[in-house]
Amino acid sequence: MSEDSPVIAIDGPSGSGKGVITHKLAAHLGFHILDSGALYRLIGLAAKKHAISFDDEAALAEQARVLTVRFEPTGDAEEPLRILLEGVDVTLELRTDEAGVDASRVAPLPGVRDGIGELQRSFKQPPGLVADGRDMGTVVFTDATVKIYLTASAQARAERRYNQLKDKDIGVNLHDLFQSIQARDERDMNRKVAPLKPAEDAHVIDSTEIDIDEVFRQVLTIVKEKLGSKP
Ligand code: C5P
Predict the structure, then answer these.
(1) Per the domain annotation, does 123 fall within a domain?
(2) In a domain, 36, yes or no
(3) Which protein residues touch ligand 1 with a CB less than 6 Å away?
(4) What is the 3-state secondary structure (H, E, C) of 33-95?
(5) pTM for the structure as a whole
(6) How far is the CA of 228 from the centre of ligand 1 (A)?
(7) CA-closest residue to ligand 1 atom 9
(8) Range of the domain at 170
(9) Would 1 be classed as within a structural domain?
(10) What is the number of structural domains in the chain?
(11) N or C: which end of the chain has fewer CB within 10 A?
């Protein structure tokens, strides 16, 4: 079965380049994409929309179970997916730092994580899936064909995020972003449920000193080796 739908798990902290690598790899292989971070961001956004308190785990878990989301291809390499929450386009809203911080507040709750478990696994369809997140290789797809863990220093990641958000005209400040990234790392790595860490069988790539094209080259070499002649 996994032969028909291999999963490539790409995990790592915020700003490590997972998103770009996931999209490039999926385009190269013709695979589907799971942006699991977007699902946690959507739960945070839906909670605010429905006035659900971030302290109310039962209501947040229910919100996760009934999440009504659609991912539509845009044909635009810069922003390849349009994300609709309950029929409304929230693509830009989801990319804000506030949405990321809200996501990292709902993500530690076991009920929330369980609530979207099935939804996440349903993305595994032929011809294959590239899954981007924090626990793709350690929890959701433990039998993934390839596991990659991307990382970089917090300073390098803050600078990349700054440039991305600035290009999208989303108001940001580098120092605030650096602090927010550090706080988010702290929460993601030290939580009890599905903490951010490399899977034992993950290939770890540190991109602090290398550019995204070189990261992609390294990832592709690993993937080709594992998938054999398929790519
Ligand atoms: O990847 P992204 O920045 O969109 O993720 C937002 C937040 O969602 C992360 O900081 C993390 O707290 C949470 N997350 C998670 N597990 C995933 C993906 C994201 O806990 N698989």
Answers:
(1) yes
(2) yes
(3) 14, 36-37, 40-41, 100, 103-104, 107, 133-135, 184, 188
(4) EEEHHHHHHHHHHHHHHCCCCCCCHHHHHHHHHCCCEEEEECCCCCCCEEEEECCEECHHHHC
(5) 0.91
(6) 31
(7) 104
(8) 7-225
(9) no
(10) 1
(11) N
